[in-house]
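## Example pair
The file below holds two records. Each record gives the amino-acid sequence first, followed by its structure token line.
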Amino acid sequence: MKIIPYILMIIILSGLVIYNQITPYMYLEEGLDTVYVGTSYEDPGATIRIGNTTYEMITYNEIDTDTIGKHSIVYEYEYKETIYRITRYVMVIPYDNFTMILNPGVDTIQIGDQWIDAGVQTSHEVDIEVVSNLNRLRAGTYEITYRVMYLEEVYEVIRYVTVVAS
């Protein structure tokens, strides 16, 4: 009679093992879930594991990256007349506001004098390209262009330097 509890325990454990082998487990694949407005979004997908086999889950919707806010992608897979669903949430956010302003400076000099570039100030750390046609030896007004590429967009600010005859 002592063997019956062991047999019952083996039957119960066997049932749990069989149950665990067919219980579906859904996984969201790792990916970037926060994107800037207007950019493309690459869906990393989702999978479902049933037993020892992994299947790709299907989605019928896409993220509208032209609309700021929280979006969802619903993945589905049908197994034995049951539809399994898992949802991924993607945040579409606006770009940081980028600003570039001229620093105050002395921009009127006499012919031959040294001009000291006061530069620009930017809201983000970026490389600044400076384009100049300044001729300190000839009277006139010259442009100093500060150019920055930030998030695939070009920003420019122009400083005018005037060289005067004494």
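Second record, same layout:
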Amino acid sequence: MNMEETFEDWRLTDCPRDAIQGLPEFVPTETKVSYLSSLMKVGFDVLDAGSFVSPKAIPQMADTAQVLSALPESDTRVLAIVANLRGAEEAIEHGRPDLLGFPFSISETFQQRNTGGGIEEAWRRLDGIRNAAERASKDVVVYLSMGFGNPYGDEWSPSLVSEWSGRLHTDLGVETLALSDTVGQATPNMVTQVFESVSSALPGLSLGAHLHGRVEHATPLMEAAWKGGCRMFDGALGGHGGCPMAKDELVGNLPTELMMSAPQEWGGKIKSWNAEALFEAQQMRTEIFGLSRVG
């Protein structure tokens, strides 16, 4: 048997949508297309490329349809965020997104801030989105925000995360759930504890990690999630971004480039990356964001 066959499979998503959405100055459509086109060639499993949401809420994503239409074909799957059924229908009609992402928070406060409706409304929206996506043969990724704590004073505990994960999986048929640390307050111990709790209770659920935090915390947090059973990870090149609905001060994503080979140390399969495309993307990234958050 080839030794590589014993290594564990894992997936990596780069999230330029998350990195760009909070920038104060609008990034021109052609610039977005050039940047995302380079990222499509790097070899990431998924590219979180845009969102079909109200342009009043997220002005940077007003051109998502045009951007997605211009992206090259590659083995990288395209994900787009939606916040309601209308957005999902627009994404499905557009045709390019392979996956639809929906932010579902176990924090009533944050769900109101993020999507303009509470948890009950989010549940109804997700039910409609899943039904529409299933009819169109599209996959849905649910981002369980506030998965590692709550800064707004709402109830939170690891058992509450497991409870909501179970409800989403059992009652709504959610198959892919990304536990998310929107405000960057997770610790490695907490991350491992939460992932172990959810993965042991729901072995049929595909679990991902969408974590925000300081650059030096990227590898420890990723390793903590890996130890807890996570095999899908999100990052953003350079560690830029953050949710503009969370706090006045954005907490950046974990830098993708620090995550691209780390799982090899923990028994993960060795992935091949297009170094030329990565270099090109890094050059454009500095033009869009200015000084790098990494290094």
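Notes on the second record: The chain has one domain: 3-289. The longest helix spans residues 119-135.
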